[in-house]
Amino acid sequence: MIRADEAGKRVSSAYFMLAQGEMITDSSMRSSEAIDLPYTLEQVWGVGEAGLDEECNRLDSGLIEARGLMELIEAEESGLKEEKLREKIAERYNAAGKLYINPPCMFCDFKYLCGLLGGSHE
Q1: Do 24 and 14 contact (CB within 8 A), yes or no?
Q2: DSSP letter string over the chain?
Q3: How far is CA 29 from CA 4, 12, 32, in A?
Q4: Does pLDDT of 32 surpass 70?
Q5: What span, in angstroms and rounded, lies between the C-alpha atoms of 92 and 98?
Q6: Using one digit for the tens of pLDDT, what is the confidence trace for 11-24?
Q7: What pLDDT is stored for residue 28 in this prediction?
Q8: Sign of dihedral through CA atoms 19, 84, 52, 111?
């Protein structure tokens, strides 16, 4: 909104993580510990927007994926270690202009729903 109102103005942004009490930013104006990022703000926004659109389309079509479980099955079937498989998946996502985030199954409270702790995963 600032950029639209004031053409050519450099806009900085930051993300404050409440639990950690830390701010992540690529701007030296906001932090003495700025992070050198390989992406511009526009690229980060575009990747996030593409991911959100894809997930909304999946939900609209009635598809909910238990990605952590799917990755465990794919790693087992391919004979790859989970870390190596996730690297390959991240490469596929990056090539498609999407952001890959490792599914945090170890923190999920719904392991019975997806079949990770019993039942079926079909």
Answers
A1: yes
A2: -HHHHSTT-----EEEETTTTEEEES-TTT-TT----SS-HHHHHHHHHHHHHHHHHHHHTT----HHHHHHHHHHHHT--HHHHHHHHHHHHHHTT-------GGG-S-HHHHTTTSS---
A3: 21, 8, 8
A4: no
A5: 8
A6: 777 777 788 777 77
A7: 67
A8: negative
**C-alpha–C-alpha distance, residues 45 and 3, integer Å:** 14
**Where are the domains positioned within the chain?**
1-37, 39-122
pLDDT of residue 69: 81
C-beta neighbour count of 87 within 10 angstroms:
12
